[in-house]
């Protein structure tokens, strides 16, 4: 079973394309996006890794570290990066975890314990469930889990939108409504009383229902 929102993201030590890391130490006090892949040299994942490389500056601006994982050795990741650069115009500029012993995939519940302990001989279809995105907060808690089928490439604009929402709602006692984008109105969370809201939002709000108070996006 995959990790639940609110769970502590399991710590691990692993080899990556940027050397050996301890995940919690590497993350430090940053937000983290960890996105996983079932196999190197697969077409949809190639587009995803190249896209993430191109838009990494957007994550950098938000103080978010990026780390990828694929169920293959680091040496294969290095060879694959050349194909990614050739086809997508950018090679991964973030660490890629080599999970050839399936340890991290199993630790995060993406593969069952009975999956074995080697990537050798396993196909992408065998690892089809290693297609998750995790957003981890500075407190090392899982804030988001998204699972994608192998046939559907990830929407990284949506992941950026989610990060914006998570960071905003972590700073202020608000939630973001359906289809929210940066700068749109937000909702005051029900746990904030009207009295407390008056102090927090002195310019007021629009109450569509007693439990649905819409307010301009807070600054900062």
Topology (elements, then pairings):
Blueprint lengths: L12 E4 L2 E4 H5 L3 E7 L5 H19 L2 E7 L3 H15 L7 E3 L4 H5 L24 E5 L5 E6 L8 H16 L2 E2 L10 E3 L5 H7 L5 E4 L2 E4 L5
Parallel strand pairs: 3-4, 4-5
Antiparallel strand pairs: 1-2, 3-6, 6-7, 8-9, 9-11, 10-11
Helical stretch tally = 6
**Strands ordered across the widest β-sheet:** 5-4-3-6-7
Name the average pLDDT: 97
CATH superfamily of the largest domain: Glutaredoxin
Radius of gyration: 19 Å
Q: Quick one: CATH class of the largest domain?
A: Alpha Beta
Task: Report the end-to-end length measured between terminal Cα atoms.
Answer: 37 Å
pLDDT under 50 segments (min length 5)? none
Could you say which structural class the secondary elements and strand pairing correspond to? alpha+beta
Largest sheet: 5 strands, mixed
CATH architecture of the largest domain: 3-Layer(aba) Sandwich
Give the proportion of residues in helices: 25-40%
Query: What's the domain count?
Result: 2
CATH topology-level fold name of the largest domain: Glutaredoxin
Total beta strands: 11
The ordered H/E elements are EEHEHEHEHEEHEEHEE
Mass-distribution shape: elongated
């Amino acid at each position: 079973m995959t990790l639940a929102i609110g769970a502590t993201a399991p710590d691990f030590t692993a080899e990556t394309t940027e050397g050996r890391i301890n995940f919690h130490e590497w993350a430090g006090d940053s937000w983290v996006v960890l996105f996983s892949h079932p196999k190197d040299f697969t077409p949809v994942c190639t587009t995803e890794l190249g896209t993430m490389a191109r838009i990494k500056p957007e994550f950098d601006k938000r103080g978010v570290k990026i780390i990828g994982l694929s169920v293959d050795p680091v040496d294969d990741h290095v060879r694959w990066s050349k194909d990614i650069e050739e086809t997508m115009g950018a090679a991964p500029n973030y660490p890629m975890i080599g999970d050839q012993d399936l340890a991290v995939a199993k630790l995060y519940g993406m593969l069952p314990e009975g999956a074995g302990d080697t990537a050798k001989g396993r196909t992408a279809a065998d690892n089809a469930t290693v297609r998750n995105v995790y957003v981890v907060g500075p407190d090392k808690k899982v804030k988001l889990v998204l699972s994608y089928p192998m046939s559907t490439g990830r929407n990284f604009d949506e992941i950026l939108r989610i990060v914006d929402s998570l960071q905003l709602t972590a700073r202020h006692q608000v939630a973001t409504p359906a289809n929210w984008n940066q700068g749109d109105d937000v909702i005051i969370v029900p746990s904030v009383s009207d009295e407390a809201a008056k102090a927090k939002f002195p310019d007021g709000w629009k109450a569509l229902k007693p439990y649905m108070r819409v307010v301009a996006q807070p600054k900062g």
